[in-house]
């Protein structure tokens, strides 16, 4: 068997061409309504983001955090239909919520106040899909709270069945959620795919069977419904370790064969293969896509465990915003894997790593609903919180 390392580039460029989907109907993003409120001293560009007269390019990942009395964008006591209780820090014993009162200011452009009605008009008859891990789910829930203002919004329809995401019998939850705003026919989707690899049970008749994790094949739901998406946001990162693979009974495959028959495959290489593979597959699909699909790959969300890891007493007890600084001055991304994979493609980067690295006070920390002694969640974020900014940066680039 050929070594996985030797075939990495070959597999990246040959990702199941037979599974290309039929393109959807034509739509565009030429709506004149801006998603943001303009500020009088700056000129508005076509993306709804204001640039100073002397500025040509906005690097959204370079800038600073600034206090903003208009934050948060929704109440942490509300949004109960959309926000998982485990991430609603206002409902925990946490006492300090100063992390809610900041917004991100890019260096070379303004990102004025988000307006949900303008965004929904901009996304009329369109679908925005998040596909990724639990951090992707946080971004999805954040956007649902932003678009409803945290209100119950009974008019919003659950249309998960249209995307094969109805909850299976006996399952705790479905593999994703899909909601539609009927007034504008705007659809927001989330699908859980922690590694962005296609998962296929090796023996469908045996519930305890191992599962083939195809590193070079995009998730089946993405292949099936890509033609219906107008905006797609991907992420992966924190499931690329042996513990996660073993716990989920995932066995890595490439070219339809197990890749570890002779020796273990480095997890970093496996992740790189998947990221490069899915980016190249999507780049090959974009010219065929009639809906003017825009694809964003979100960079990794940073962990902030200090004095240990998640299972060895690591914690993130700091409650002081920006105690390590408030500014990002670097030009490139801190996530070099994603940044490198996107070069030469039409897939865009949603760079939130360095922005979020400054916000260690915004994690769940020890204030979880199922608080366990000496255990902290320094991976997931309180909502409202940092993922709201990810969505503002995303919306600025749509």
UniProtKB/TrEMBL annotation:
InterPro entries for this protein: TBL, TBL_C, TBL_N
Comp. bias (Basic and acidic residues): 1-25
Chief subcellular location: membrane
Organism: Momordica charantia
Record protein name field: Protein trichome birefringence-like 14 isoform X3
Residue ranges of domain Trichome birefringence-like C-terminal in the record: 111-396
Domain (Trichome birefringence-like N-terminal) ranges: 57-110
Region annotated Disordered, chain positions: 1-48
Signal peptide start and end residues: none
Localisation: Membrane
Recorded family membership: Belongs to the PC-esterase family. TBL subfamily.
Lipid bilayer topology: Single-pass membrane protein
């Amino acid at each position: 068997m050929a070594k996985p390392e030797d075939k990495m580039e070959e597999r990246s460029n040959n990702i199941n061409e037979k599974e290309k989907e039929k393109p959807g109907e034509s739509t565009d993003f030429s709506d004149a309504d801006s998603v943001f409120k303009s500020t009088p001293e700056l000129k508005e560009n076509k993306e709804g983001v204001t640039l100073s007269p002397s500025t040509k390019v906005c690097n959204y990942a370079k800038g600073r955090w600034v206090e903003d009395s208009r934050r948060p964008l929704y109440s942490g006591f509300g949004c109960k239909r959309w926000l998982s209780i485990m991430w609603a820090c206002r409902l925990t014993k946490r006492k300090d919520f100063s992390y809610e009162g900041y917004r991100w200011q890019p260096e070379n452009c303004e990102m004025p106040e988000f307006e949900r009605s303008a965004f929904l008009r901009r996304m009329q008859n369109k679908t925005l899909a998040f596909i990724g891990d639990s951090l992707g789910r946080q971004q999805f829930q954040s956007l649902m709270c932003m678009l409803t203002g945290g209100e119950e919004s009974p008019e919003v329809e659950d249309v998960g069945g249209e995307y094969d995401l109805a909850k299976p019998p006996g399952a705790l939850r479905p593999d994703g959620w899909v909601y539609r705003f009927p007034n504008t026919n705007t659809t927001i989707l989330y699908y859980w795919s922690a590694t962005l690899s296609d998962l296929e049970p090796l023996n469908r008749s045996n519930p305890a069977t191992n599962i083939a994790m195809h590193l070079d094949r995009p998730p089946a739901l993405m292949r099936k419904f890509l033609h219906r998406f107008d905006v797609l946001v991907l992420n992966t990162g924190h499931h690329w370790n042996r513990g996660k693979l073993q716990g989920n009974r995932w066995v890595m495959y490439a070219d339809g064969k197990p890749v570890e028959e002779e020796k273990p495959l480095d997890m970093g290489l496996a992740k790189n293969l998947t990221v490069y593979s899915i980016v190249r597959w999507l780049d090959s699909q974009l010219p065929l896509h009639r809906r003017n699909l825009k694809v964003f790959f979100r960079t990794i969300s940073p962990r902030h465990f200090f004095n240990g890891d998640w299972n060895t007493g690591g914690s993130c007890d700091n409650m002081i915003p920006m105690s390590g600084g408030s500014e990002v001055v670097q030009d490139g991304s801190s996530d070099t894997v994603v940044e490198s994979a996107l070069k030469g493609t039409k897939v865009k980067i949603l760079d939130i790593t360095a922005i979020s690295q400054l916000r260690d006070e915004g994690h769940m920390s020890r204030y979880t609903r199922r608080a366990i002694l000496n255990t902290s969640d320094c991976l997931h974020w309180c909502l409202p919180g940092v993922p709201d900014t990810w969505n503002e940066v995303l919306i600025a680039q749509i």
